[in-house]
Amino acid sequence: MNQHFASVTEIMHPIGSRSAGPDDVVRLIELKRRFGATAALDGVSLSVRQGEILGIIGRSGAGKSTLIRCLNGLERPDSGQVFIEGRDISRLGERELQPLRRRIGMIFQHFNLLSAKTVEVNVALPLKIEGRPRAERLARAAELLELVGLSEKAKAYPASLSGGQKQRVGIARALAARPALLLSDEATSALDPETTRSILALLRDINRQLGLTILLITHEMEVIRSIADRVAVIDAGRIVEQGPVWSVFADPKSAITQSLLGGIRPQLPAEIASRLTQNAGVEAILRIDVAGEAARSPLLSDLASAVPGWFRLVHGGIDHVQQQPVGTLFVAVAGSNEDHLAEVIAFLKARNARVEVLGHVANSV
Ligand code: ADP
Fold first, then answer.
1. Other residues' Cβ atoms within 10 Å of the Cβ of residue 20
2. How far is the CA of 126 from the centre of ligand 1 (A)?
């Protein structure tokens, strides 16, 4: 993919250069918005720093769309403040909002391209709205299509493009007016896994090469894992957890985060889970969560030396999130001796692993 990005730094450098806050392109303070009895936003505070990719994840109904609408001024919060590049937009009128809204480029799940217009006209649209001359618009569209690897499609119509190509056009259009922030609203939710990966890689490249600040709204942890620097988990209108992606993956505090992670974490195979009992048995099945140093060290061989006995890796693996190892291992341990089991658990905990005895199985699995 990198071949698409030759000489783009000079194309995009003004992005974010007008940031008024110390390092925050967006800052939300105690944002509240109710619809009747429903608190869609119930005191949301968070910031997006210059040059970072912040992922906001939550289930359907968590408040993500309301958050986006407050950010681009389509919805007014009942209380709280929305700072974009240091300016509070939450009380501005429609006329004052217009130029500030253009500081946010948006990409959408269903691309929202104009089907009757060519790719280059779609990309240049934000500049037309700004009243820029046609020659400038088309030159900018050509630069951006090169950036997203679609130069040869400039004269094509959206209907002739694949989903991934349509989203590349969407990205090019979102960047046309050199926004301070790219807001991605479930932008890969309609794409297949391979196309999703290529679009996320494109966003990451643009972020790295151009320092573009990205706020990414999703319900998929895999999207967060792939490209976000930090993650905020939203549930019932509140941010229940936030931090660097790898640390939230390593030590998810809230039940909702654990559940969202469940889909991309190793799970005990159902065949074994169905045989677990709480009575002492031949084997105890341990779930061992490791991250950072605990995942880098020879934990299992050290365990075998320190606490003689037999151990068997049943299932699991180590993933790498932001270059940090984070993993879950399911290990079967000789289970009939309580003292032995207690020693194993104490050893693992002393090495900063999180350990849970899931149960016992009567026979070796
Ligand atoms: P998400 O985008 O995470 O699915 P939303 O922001 O759309 O969540 O919705 C959050 C909550 O607010 C939901 O319970 C939803 O039903 C409610 N809600 C959102 N917009 C409206 C509205 N215009 N009128 C009534 N209820 C709304």
1. 12
2. 28
